[in-house]
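[User]
Protein folding is very new to me. Any chance you could explain this protein sequence and its structure tokens? I have pasted everything here:
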Amino acid sequence: MALERGRLIAVFEALLATYGPQHWWPAETPFEVMVGAVLTQNTAWTNVERGLAQLKARTPLKAAAILDLPEAELAQCLRPVGYFNVKTRRLRAFCAAYLAAGRRRGLSRLPTAELRHRLLAIPGVGPETADDMLLYAFARPVFVVDAYTRRILSRLGELGGEEGYETIRHGLEAALGPDAALFNEYHALIVRHGKEVCRPQPRCHACCLANRCLAAPRLTTP
């Protein structure tokens, strides 16, 4: 899959002009970014914020402190995030692996490919979660691919719609070059646009990309 840098940058610039900088990821520390990445799977960020607030009210947001909480108490804190029993186990597994690796300092010493492999080995951490951590907690130039990325780039004609996660990620990284700051802002803008405008039922009349979107005329025709 060969993506064209010029077209991708034009999309980025249109989104940035519309929404402005997004200041992602919303967290106070890199560890909070990682916790949020685990908890945001299959749920809205507003639910994650509620769960994080309850967790912070109960204990310091540190790996050892989270592991010291009885599992039932941790699950109760995470109830707002949905699938809270599953996410309790996943968060505990992540915290244990994080401590075993020497916390963020130990993980930061690893080259990006090795760090990604280490994160993916943790139960419950898939490619999108690992890449969220790599980009937003470690500032590594890894493009996060999510449902919004697939939807928007498919409608723009940049993707066929059937490409796998790694194919899309490698294609974007190859086209844009290793630029963590660009990837950070681009992904955040894609999420914003996907939530507000390029929805499953798109609001094409409000879309800053409508003039370059192959799907817009078809989707807006009565």
